[in-house]
Structures are given as structure tokens and as C-alpha cells.
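call fold(seq) -> C-alpha cells
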Amino acid sequence: MIRRCDQKDFEAILEIINDAAQAYKGVIPADRWHDPYMSRRQLQKEIHAGVIFWGLEEEGGLIGVMGIQDKGDVTLIRHAYVRSHLRNQGIGSQLLLFLESLTQNPILIGTWADAIWALSFYQKNGYQLVSIDEKNHLLKKYWTIPERQIETSVVLAGTK
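ret:
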């Protein structure tokens, strides 16, 4: 069952993000890696900035989470993670399809350029990489991230 996450899910969201983000270790630039990947404070900041998390729940526990953030003329998909031992079972695709149904706006997704599995996942689900110039513009306009992260990230856009 996919459901909107609330405050009682905070620890599970944080756990899923930090578990799944271990895949980035040694892949993304070393100066962008943190352990834990996301702190409690960072997650709280994202929620306060308007990221709404949705989760896929099985047997009373969350197994995957994905955030959605309305930015007026576009919608961002943020922080999409599945428990590492449950990857490649369609959980991310189910969450993405559900979140797509929540908006009529164009959807943008930012991720690490070297996270080849993430790029493949989004492209398999119909998203296309934007040009470098457009990526730089979009990341500065819609995200609040450091310049170094802009340099090492990509943006994918939905086709609708």
C-alpha cells in the first residue's frame, strides 16, 4: 500500500534513505559523501521546505520512500530510496507512477551524474536528461544545493 508519510514515519524514512544511499559511497565525489548520508537535521529541513514523502508499506513497515515537492510551475521528485535488500523489485517504479498521478505539472528529477543505476531507472520510466546548460539553470532555480553538487549532478525531465 502506498501512503503519505507523517511524523511517526520520520525514523523509518531516515533509515531507508541512509541504507539505500550506501550505494553512493565510492561512486559520487568523495567531498559530497557524508556518513550518515542524510542527517536528522537535513531531513527535517527538507520536510520543512515542502518535500512530502510517500511510502510503500508492506506488512506494517515502510520498504521504500519517495518525496514530491511542488515548486509552482514544476514538481520535483526528491529523495527516492528503497531498502537495499529489496531493490529491483518494482518498488521505486510503483512509487514514481503514483507520485506522477499527483501532479499535472512537468516533473523534474535531480540525481548524481555518476549514479548510473538511478539514471537508468528514471530513463526506463520515461525521463530524459536535459542539456548541461538547462541542468545548471534548473538546479539553481528549483533546488537549494551547493555549487559543487550542481557540478556533479544531472536533471531528468518527464515527457508529459
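Helices lie at 10-20, 40-48, 91-100, 116-124, 132-142, 147-151.
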